[in-house]
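Practice problem: predict the structure.
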Amino acid sequence: MISFAAKNASSTATCSSALARYLWLRNPDNLTDRQRDRLDELLRHPLKTARAYRWMLKFDHAYQLPAEEAEHYLRTWCKGAKRSRLKPIIDFAWMVEDHWLGIARWFQSRITNALLEGLNSLIQAPKRRARGYRSTRNYIAMIYLTVSKLPIAVPHTK
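Answer:
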């Protein structure tokens, strides 16, 4: 969400430093004192990037809320974001509403599909490496070998 606005930050006169872009993208809790001072200085300017950054912080606040409050908070955030006059923020708010059921479910269960995505990545790796297998049986065998992470000892020959 903020990355689009941060890309344009270096083009303004107040954000001439290429490093300023990364201040917008970093977690404010992980900033050094010097970076915090620089970010505070940038936030005092009437930049669209600064407005987008504030919207991002408001959105991130939802993760600290209990599930019951988070849904109401996000609905209110979406209504305000759609009136923000910042195209990337408006687009993001519409995307949140389009995926509302999954987002609301996450606040209830705190379960994501990250494990499945990681497993899919492991399965796709041997497929890309080989550019095809002679049979499905061979492909399945390679999936088992890759995903299981078995330590395979190779005999040394001299």
